[in-house]
Amino acid sequence: MRYDTPSLVRWNARAYDSSFGYVSAHGAPLIDLLDPQPGERILDLGCGTGVLTAEIASRGALALGIDGSPAMIEAAIAHHPGLDFIVGDGHDFTVADPYDAVFSNAALHWMNRDPDAVIECVRMALRPGGRFVAEMGGAGNCSALTAAMLTAWREHGLNEPHLPWYFPSPAEYAARLEKAGFALRIIEFFDRPTPLDECPNGAADWVRMFAGALLEGVPPATVEPLLRRVNELAAPALRRESGWMADYVRLRFAAVRH
Ligand SMILES: C[S@@+](CC[C@H](N)C(=O)[O-])C[C@H]1O[C@@H](n2cnc3c(N)ncnc32)[C@H](O)[C@@H]1O
User: Fold this and answer.
1) Which amino acids bring their CB within 6 angstroms of ligand 1?
2) By the 8 A CB rule, do 43 and 102 touch?
3) Domains of the chain and CATH, by start
4) If you take atom 9 of ligand 1, which residue's CA is the nearest one?
């Protein structure tokens, strides 16, 4: 098990829960798809602050949360005493005893270094017949947000940022799962416009939370004008009278290990 922070993001667990709690809130239908049973062993990969791990445990399952961010795991342990959480990288984890299911919400697209390695770790963590139930960003996710970022960076004379996400099409991810030895049961691909209710600065707040590491390479005096420009560019597509709306596209699936 590796104990470094694997993605570009250094997660701010408190800001995540207070302003981006919608991420976990949208996980409820995925838990229904998982359908955890009392006594089942279920691993929550990329568990964040453990909100959904706790929900799974509340249905009587024995849940373990794994996350690459020590800050997220620290918050998960503090919020959910009595549940098990460990720091680990989705590309490179092993478990002593197999699980009945691996669950993952809004995390697989962050594990962008080698998606096949992630799928193989999941397979190895499951018993034969065990299920892999997950939702992640799919192809085209946040395209208006990221187009605004790329344009704003270019206009400010900055190098094009390397966006730290993997957003596959359903066909691509299904092929990876099947090649790795999973039988696909369900795959869904849908737009999910998502209100950024707790982000008064709209796209700029979203960039700070989810692409904050990209700002570290930006001269401090440029950060504010850059983010203002991101907002100007993204507003026509994403700002409504009622507030900002992120252009999320989701890929949701359930697969079974052969
Ligand atoms: C948007 S959060 C989702 C958290 C949680 N599943 C939820 O629904 O609220 C994404 C999580 O993936 C974790 N993550 C990113 N890359 C990872 C990796 N390579 N291995 C394990 N966790 C990772 C992050 O630390 C973060 O907690």
Assistant:
1) 6-7, 11, 23-24, 27, 46-48, 51-52, 67-69, 72, 89-91, 105-107, 110-111
2) yes
3) 13-139+165-194+247-257 (3.40.50.150)
4) 24
Taking the C-alpha atoms of residue 208 and residue 200, their distance in angstroms, rounded to an integer, is 12
Angle at 23 between CA 112 and CA 16, to 5 degrees: 85
Stated pTM of the model: 0.93
Which of 14, 47, 67, 250 to probe ligand 1 with, by most ligand atoms within 8 A of CB? 67
pLDDT band of 19, cuts 50, 70, 90: low
The residues with which 187 forms a beta bridge, in sequence order, are 253
Burial of 176 (C-beta count, 10 Å sphere; 0-12/13-18/19+): middle
What does DSSP say about strands 182-195 and 243-257: parallel, antiparallel, or unpaired? Answer: antiparallel
